[in-house]
C-alpha cells in the first residue's frame, strides 16, 4: 500500500467545500487544505436552508473553491489518485452539482471517481483526526440525522437505533426559531442556555429507559412551545431558561440512549474501541462533556473531531474516499446522485442478525 492523495467535494446542504487529504500507507492521514464557503447569510432570512438557493450558490462558487483547495495544498490535479464527491444523502440539487463536477474532473484528468455517502464521511472522520480503530460506536447527530451505529469496518455499518421523528439538530433549529433566536439555531440555543436556569421548566425526556436505543424529539419540541405560550410574551430570561431546560433534556436523552447502544453492541459480542461523536451537534460543548463521562462509565473513550470537522466539509469526503480507495472501491461515472441513502445500505454493509 502507498500514500494516496484525494480531492473531496461536499455540496449536500448549505456549505460549498473542497479539500485535499493525504492517506498514508500506515492508515494515518493529513489534511493539506480544507476550504469551506458557508451560505448561512443567504438562508438566514428564511430561518432555514432553501434548496434552490443552495443549489444555485454551489454552481456559482464550486469551481473557485476547488481551485483554492488545490492551490492551498500545493497539489496539482495530475498528482491526485482519485476525485471523491458526496453523492448523497442531501438536497438533491446540491448533490447533483458536486457529483457532476467530480465526474467531469474524473473524466478530464483520467482519475478514478469515488462516490461517497455523506454519512459515511461523518462516520470515518474520527479515524483521520484520532486514528480510531474499528470497531466503534458512532453517534451521528446533525440537522438531518440522529443515529446510533456500530461501525466494524469501511462499508460495515450496523444501525442500532435512530430517531422516529425529528433529528436532534432539527429540534435545536426549530426551538430556536420558535423562541425568536437567529439561524443557525443550534449555536444560538447553546449560547442562550449558558445564561439560563435548566431547572425552571420540567420538560419530558422521551423514550428514556426504553430497551432499544431510539430517539423521539417531536414531543419535547411541542413541550417547549406549550411552555412558551403559557408565559407569553417572552422576556430574554424566559428564552434563556427555556433553552437551558431544552438542552438539558436533550443531553439527558442522549446519555441514556448511548448507554443503551453500548449495551447492545456488547450483547452482539462487539467491544467498542471508542464512542465517536459526529455531525454538527457534536460542536455543542455540553453534549461533549456529558458524553465524555458516558463513554468513560461504559469502559471506552469519546472521540470527537474538532468543531470545524463536525460540520460539513470537504476533508471528511476526501478522507472517506481515501479509505474506500485503499480497499479498491471506486465508482462508475454513471453513479446516480441520491437524496436518500441510508448508511447501512453503503456497499459492504452487513447485518448483525
Task: Describe the model.
The chain is an alpha/beta fold and 353 residues long. 43% of the residues lie in helices and 18% in strands. A 5-stranded mixed β-sheet has the order 3-2-1-4-5, sandwiched between helices. Strands 8-7-6-9-10 form a 5-stranded mixed β-sheet, sandwiched between helices. Mean pLDDT is 94; it is low at 349-353.
Which descriptors apply to this entry?
353 residues, disordered C terminus, 18% strand, 11 helices, alpha/beta, globular, five-stranded mixed sheet
Provide the fold topology:
Elements: E1 4-10, E2 15-23, E3 29-38, H1 40-43, H2 51-73, E4 82-88, H3 92-109, E5 113-117, H4 118-129, E6 136-141, E7 146-153, E8 156-162, H5 168-178, H6 185-193, H7 218-230, H8 236-267, E9 275-278, H9 285-297, E10 302-303, H10 307-310, H11 314-326
Parallel strand pairs: 1-4, 4-5, 6-9, 9-10
Antiparallel strand pairs: 1-2, 2-3, 6-7, 7-8
Helix pairs in contact: 2-3, 4-11, 5-6, 5-7, 5-8, 6-8, 7-8, 8-9
Task: Give a quick rundown of the structure.
The chain is α/β, with parallel strands linked by helices.
In which range does the helix fraction lie?
40-55%
Largest sheet: 5 strands, mixed
Low-confidence segments, given as residue ranges, are: 349-353
User: Which structural class do you get from the secondary structure elements?
Assistant: alpha/beta
Report the principal-axis shape. globular
Question: Strands of the biggest beta sheet: in what spatial order?
Answer: 3-2-1-4-5
Order of helices and strands: EEEHHEHEHEEEHHHHEHEHH
Strand residue content: 15-25%
- Mean pLDDT comes to 94
- The separation of the N and C termini measures 33 Å
Alpha plus pi helix count = 11
Strand element count = 10
| Oligomeric state, counting identical vs distinct chains | single chain
Amino acid at each position: 500500500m502507498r500514500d494516496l492523495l484525494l480531492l473531496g467535494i461536499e455540496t449536500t446542504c448549505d456549505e460549498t467545500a473542497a479539500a485535499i487529504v493525504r492517506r498514508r500507507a500506515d492508515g494515518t492521514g493529513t489534511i493539506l487544505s480544507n476550504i469551506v464557503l458557508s451560505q448561512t447569510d443567504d438562508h438566514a432570512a428564511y430561518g432555514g436552508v432553501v434548496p434552490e438557493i443552495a443549489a444555485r450558490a454551489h454552481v456559482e462558487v464550486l469551481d473557485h473553491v476547488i481551485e483554492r483547495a488545490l492551490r492551498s495544498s500545493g497539489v496539482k490535479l495530475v498528482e491526485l489518485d482519485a476525485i471523491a464527491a458526496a453523492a448523497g444523502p442531501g438536497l438533491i440539487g446540491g448533490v447533483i452539482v458536486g457529483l457532476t463536477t467530480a465526474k467531469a474532473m474524473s473524466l478530464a484528468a483520467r482519475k478514478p471517481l469515488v462516490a461517497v455517502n455523506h454519512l459515511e464521511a461523518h462516520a470515518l472522520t474520527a479515524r483521520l483526526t484520532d486514528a480510531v480503530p474499528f470497531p466503534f460506536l458512532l453517534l451521528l447527530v446533525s440537522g438531518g440525522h440522529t443515529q446510533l451505529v456500530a461501525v466494524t469496518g469501511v462499508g460495515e455499518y450496523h444501525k442500532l437505533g435512530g430517531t422516529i421523528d425529528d433529528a436532534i439538530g432539527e429540534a435545536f433549529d426549530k426551538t430556536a426559531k420558535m423562541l425568536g433566536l437567529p439561524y443557525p439555531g443550534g449555536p444560538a440555543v447553546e449560547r442562550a442556555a449558558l445564561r439560563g436556569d435548566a431547572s425552571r421548566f420540567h420538560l419530558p425526556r422521551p423514550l428514556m429507559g426504553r430497551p432499544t436505543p431510539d430517539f423521539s424529539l417531536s414531543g419535547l419540541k411541542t413541550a417547549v412551545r406549550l411552555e412558551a405560550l403559557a408565559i407569553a410574551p417572552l422576556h430574554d430570561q424566559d428564552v434563556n431558561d427555556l433553552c437551558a431546560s431544552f438542552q438539558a433534556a436533550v443531553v439527558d436523552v442522549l446519555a441514556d440512549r448511548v448507554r443503551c447502544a453500548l449495551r447492545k453492541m456488547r450483547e452482539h459480542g462487539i467491544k467498542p474501541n471508542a464512542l465517536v461523536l459526529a455531525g454538527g451537534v457534536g460542536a455543542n460543548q455540553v453534549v461533549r462533556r456529558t458524553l465524555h463521562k458516558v463513554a468513560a462509565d461504559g469502559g471506552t473513550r469519546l472521540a470527537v473531531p474538532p468543531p470545524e470537522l463536525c460540520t460539513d466539509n470537504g476533508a471528511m469526503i476526501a478522507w472517506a474516499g481515501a479509505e474506500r480507495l485503499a480497499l479498491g472501491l471506486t465508482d462508475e461515472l454513471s453513479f446516480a446522485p441520491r437524496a436518500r441513502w441510508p448508511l447501512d445500505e453503503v456497499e459492504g454493509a452487513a447485518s448483525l442478525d
